[in-house]
Amino acid sequence: MKKFALSFLALAMTVFASSQIRMTMVDPANHQIQIKNFGMMAVDISAYRMCALFDYQTLNQAPVTIVAGDFNLSSNESVTLSWNIVTGK
Questions:
Q1: Global pTM?
Q2: What are residue 80's phi and psi, to 5 degrees?
Q3: What string of H, E and C letters represents the secondary structure of the chain?
Q4: Cα dist. 65→1, 5, 38, 78 in Å?
Q5: Alpha carbon distance 50, 23 (integer Å)
Q6: Phi-psi region of 4 (alpha: psi -120 to 50; beta: other; left: phi over 0)
Q7: DSSP letter at 28?
């Protein structure tokens, strides 16, 4: 029984301690996107990739401008990004 309780506790801590990154707003008219960390751990999203017409770039290399926040998201923190649309590819 003790092993089960310890295993369950370890699993629960892993689940609750992880980061959960989600897009919470996409505004195509203003070319903005908001990304939020719903998890309990901080996470650096600068190496996360987004796709723009089959062109995958990490956020720190993509043509984005940070409107509010930064790429290092603490628990319950969000960042708003604006990106430059390149047409005619």
A1: 0.69
A2: -110, 125
A3: CHHHHHHHHHHHHHHHHCCCEEEEEEECCCCEEEEEECCCCCEECCCCEEECCCCEEECCCCCEEEEECCCEECCCCEEEEEECCCCCC
A4: 53, 47, 22, 14
A5: 11
A6: alpha
A7: T
How wide is the angle at C-alpha 28 spanned by C-alphas 41 and 42, nearest 5°? 5
Residue pair 48/59 in contact by the 8 Å Cβ criterion: yes
Query: For residue range 46-70, what is the model confidence (pLDDT) as tens digits?
Result: 888 877 667 677 787 777 888 998 8
User: Is the Cβ–Cβ distance between 32 and 67 less than 8 Å?
Assistant: yes
Whether 35 has a pLDDT exceeding 70, the answer reads: yes
- Quick one: tokens of 14? 């892993």
Q: Is the pLDDT of residue 5 over 70?
A: no
Token pair of 47 as six digits: 């190496």
- Structure tokens that stand for 51 in this block: 């796709």
